[in-house]
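[09:14] KT: can someone run the structure on this one? pasting the chain below
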Amino acid sequence: MKLTGLNKKILFGMTLLLMILGLAIAFTTQNIVFRVLKDQFKSNGTSHARSIAANSLVDVLTMNTRRLEKMVENESISKPDIAYIFIMGSSGNVLAHTFREGFPKSLIKANSLSGYSDFNVQLIDTSMGIIYDIASPIILDKSIIGQVRLGIKQSGIQKTIRLINLVIMAVTLLMILIGIIIAYRFSMLITKPISQLVEGIQSVQKGDFSAKIYTANNDEVGLLAEAFNDMTGRLHSLVEEIKSLTKYKERERIALDLHDGIAQNLVSIIKRVELCEKLVKAAPEEALQELKILKYKTKDILNETRQVIFDIKSEEDHCGMLGRLRLYLKDYESINNIAVKIITAGSLDNIPAEKCGAIFYIITEALNNAGKHSFAKNVTLNIAEDKDILKILIEDDGYGFDVNFEKTSGSRCGKFGLAGMRQRAEALGGKLNIHSAANKGSVIGLEIPLA
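[09:31] RB: done, structure tokens below
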């Protein structure tokens, strides 16, 4: 599991936030600039109209239309944002204008002064686009003797706004880019120690308690990393202690096997040998019968001795499970006169070393039970690895037994019989299932997780 998703979420969230803020700032700035520019254009246009009105006072009084025409033409050329200029007399007649294709009379009524107002601004739609039409009076001794009409193109404002918008968008994109870089660095500061923590947890899941997290953060993440390192250290100590206890218990179990099994049987054999010595001359037939019993007892001791040897070797021998079983079965088949068929599926190389010994013990214990108690002639051993689970099935064609009776009495397999097999399976995190009935053989199923 990787934390690229969290990193991407932080980057996406920060980028989205910056984009929203950038667009909001750009939109707000655009509106403010538009209003400021519009007011500025109107103010400049009004001042310009007033200036023309003041300069045309004498010419209006003398009806010098030629000078008026020259003046409005020069003003129009000097100001590219001016759409038109025309001057009217007191009677509403047009004295001068800048229209080359004839004066549109509809403009006369498009805007008008009311009373003695200094100016009036009207927004009108013309063939030249949206125009701010400004009317400014020509005054002589508080009397209006005419008016100047000045039209300013709105396209000039829009052009300026577009230029300002480009600048704002460029600045916004730069801010977003810088924000993304900062967000990336910020997200790495958060996700990197968390990624290390996840990797450490995964290592712990695999049984590696040496994983450590190193971070320079002094925040909650740093405290979490410190707590994790302390936890793995304690787990490592506990695991080592458990391993030591496990080895101690295994040695104790082997000692009990030697004492309760082999040693007791040897004592019994010695007594029977002494009895044979007495019966050889007095009762030869009884002596022969005792020797036959001694033969079977000796075989049992040999089997138990081999089992103890294999148990001891399982703690240090790291060979493959299948190789160890084949080695064990060579003697098992000859001693017990039982044919064993092994069927395998999947790779058997992923069995952890710490579980190998216990699994081997359960299999050999089941085989020994078949040899000692069921009088089976054939055993099928099916071993498969499926999705990190080791599945083992042991079937024999022996006499079988009452599973419920054996659970309560434990008479079939002794102290380290079925109960020991179940305990080992549960200690490995697995489960052991036993199915059997009288004269129908036995089936032992084992499932062990390998993780």
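[09:33] KT: thanks! Residues 19 and 222 are 32 Å apart (CA to CA).
[09:34] RB: yep, looked fine to me
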